[in-house]
Design brief:
Oligomer: single chain
Number of helices: 12
CATH superfamily of the domain at 111-250: Tetracycline Repressor, domain 2
Largest sheet: 2 strands, antiparallel
Shape: elongated
Distance between the termini: 27 Å
């Protein structure tokens, strides 16, 4: 499935199994998730490398270190990639596929539009972090900060994924404006950035306190309430529960 972004780029979304556990803190924990069996395919090597990068950052990856952990020869692992940059490229691609498979694909399949789509995107983002699909939550927060201001293939790839996500939010908000669910005067791009800031803040809070994202969902709902037109009853924004009920009844 290919999802078009607002900027006209195409995001290649393929289904990968959810193979990662919760938020891990040690190499022994990591081996518990990735298993002790020596990987024999490129995909299995990428999965292990992503688990390391999600915990410790892309900078922690090395051909030698990964080969040692996997009990492979460096030459055997190198044969799959040819360079560390190619390994990192594969890791970032896998992270983006896992993310978009969980967050975007179900929304595309359900054909949600407008303000319901905006809500679903944010709700699914939080669900991705809460379920621990990747250790540490949202891989691209740390990766983007690490690569910000740098040039090269990997920083460009990471920036592209982050921009694709922003553009998905932006396009959904713009669609809500044209559906008369959000006021036309609203700056959709700016609101997309603001909503993304709430999501990233929620991730940091979850990592520090290990709490759920109830407050984050309430903050997102309050933001949508401030943007909405009279086409949506004010009572729908009373609580997250009220909002979910409103959306469910609207689709019946």
């Amino acid at each position: 499935m290919r999802i078009s972004s607002l900027a006209g780029r195409q995001t290649n979304v393929r289904a990968y199994p959810t193979i990662f556990g919760g938020c891990l803190t040690s190499k022994s924990d990591r081996r518990g998730v990735i298993g002790d069996k020596e990987p024999n395919t490129r995909d299995e090597i990428v999965a292990r490398a992503l688990n390391i990068a999600a915990l410790e950052g892309l900078g922690a990856l090395s051909i030698g270190g990964l080969a040692k952990e996997l009990k492979m020869s460096k030459s055997g692992l190198f044969a799959h990639f040819g360079s560390k940059e190619n390994l990192e490229t594969a890791v970032v691609e896998r992270a983006s596929v896992l993310f978009f498979d969980h967050v975007l694909v179900p929304i595309e399949e359900s054909r949600l539009e407008g303000i319901a789509r905006v809500w679903a995107l944010c709700d699914s983002w939080l669900d991705f972090v809460e379920q621990g699909i990747l250790p540490g939550g949202y891989f691209f927060t740390g990766a983007y900060f690490q690569c910000a201001g740098r040039s090269g293939t990997i920083p460009r790839q990471i920036k592209r994924v982050v921009c694709d996500w922003r553009d998905v939010l932006w396009k959904a908000l713009d669609q809500a404006r044209w559906r008369d669910e959000v006021r036309m005067a609203v700056d959709a791009e700016q609101v997309a950035i603001e909503l993304n800031s709430v999501l990233i803040g929620a991730q940091w809070s979850q990592l520090m306190t290990h709490t759920d994202h109830t407050n984050a969902r309430s903050a997102i709902l309050a933001k949508l309430a401030s943007l909405a037109t009279k086409e949506i009853p004010a009572s729908a924004f009373d609580s997250v529960g009220s909002w979910r009920s409103y959306l469910e009844n609207r689709t019946q």
